[in-house]
Amino acid sequence: MPVSAFDPTPVRQIWQQLEIPGIVDVHTHFMPKSVMDKVWAYFDSAGPLVGRPWPITYRAEESQRVATLREFGVLRFTSLVYPHKPQMAAWLNQWAGQFAEQTPDCVHTATLFPEPEAADYVRDAIEAGAGVFKVHIQVGAFSPTDPLLVPAWGLIEDAGVPVVIHCGSGPAPGEFTGPDRIRALLTQFPRLRLIVAHMGMPEYSDFLDLAQQYDEVRLDTTMAFTAFSNEKAPFPPADYPRLVDLGHKIYFGSDFPNIPYGYAEAITAMQSMPGIDEDWMRDVLYRNGAKLFGVDG
Question: Which residue ranges does the record assign to the Amidohydrolase-related domain (predicted)?
Fold first, then answer.
């Protein structure tokens, strides 16, 4: 009988064998139910931003999803919310703040959108204790260098709050995705603590360049290296050495619950990469994220 994707045993065995306290996952999604239902419906329809069949492995009630992460041994996770239109971000920030209050192991998450109010609600979120921002260039269909975002970026840079930013052109390119606009953003705000989602898939090499060039640019592993992603956007073998060398700037991300495979596969896919050793895995699965979010081990 096949093991259920909800069975925590395969995940727990991995981090226990590495002798770490558990996992820090910088890329998980919790949203208001009405929003999550629409996200799942979009994946079900294989819409243009998805471009292929994409079953949701961890489609379950919110309480079960939280319990599943805890059973896996995830010590800290995020509620990455993101708007697709104006007048939505402030409401999402309010919801995410309440969710973090009720869920202490979830990092208080916030988001933004290019609109006149952005600086005000970004300031409010920072003052309320936001520990991470989420920006989705593809879904939001906006440029990160939009002038309306300049004051907000300045606030985030000064506060040193990390930003998980989906800016690569996968799974489908958008008008504003790709490395060029991120380079332009970093020219304006070189101290921004960006965590490039999905390793910048499929422009892996360009985003590795930025991680090497800027002290505060990091990457998360979300969906990278898995068989599902390798069908369309395999990680370039020429960059294996840089992947190894940058282990201190790489964070584990899963995209839970919106993944078309089991949680353990996201981890074993990393372990199978050439040059990856146990110490690299300890950094990426736990140490880097624990330092970023102040997790006590």
Answer: 24-294
Question: d(Cα 3, Cα 14) in Å, to the nearest integer?
Answer: 16
Separation CA 268–CA 265 (nearest Å): 5
| CA–CA gap between residue 273 and residue 128 (Å, rounded) | 40
Distance (Å, whole) CA 180 – CA 190: 14
> pLDDT at position 3, please?
65
Mean pLDDT of the chain: 97
Element holding 194 (H helix, E strand): strand 194-196
Give the DSSP H or E segment for 133: strand 132-136
CA–CA separation, 105 vs 23, rounded Å?
Answer: 12
By CB atoms closer than 10 A (0-12, 13-18, 19+), residue 270 is buried
Model confidence, pTM: 0.97
The model's pLDDT over 7-65, given as tens digits with 9 standing for 90+, comes to: 999 999 999 999 999 999 999 999 999 999 999 999 999 989 898 999 999 999 999 99
Dist CA 11 CA 18 (whole Å): 11
Compute CA 128 distance to the chain's CA centroid, rounded to the nearest angstrom. 21
Domains in the chain and their CATH numbers? 8-293 (3.20.20.140)
**Looking up tokens 């064998």, which residue turns up?**
17
